[in-house]
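S1.2 Input.
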Amino acid sequence: MCDKVTAIVDGLKAEHADTIEIETVKVGDGDSQKEIEESDLKLHGIIAKNPAGEIVTTVEGHSYGKDKVEEVIALLSEE
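S1.3 Output.
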């Protein structure tokens, strides 16, 4: 994730800690490049997975804000 989205997500972690696990990973760290390729993202973005590790949704890039991040969190909370 880029710094802008990381800040948004980190700001929501505590609020949703009881319902979902949120992890932010910078592009280039760990297995991020493999995760990006497997999720069909072009460069970077959000890869949201269910507890079984299956991709629920992805969001390309970083031109979105808090509303989109909250939408992804809501979708994951339904899983």
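S1.4 Remarks. The radius of gyration is 12 Å.
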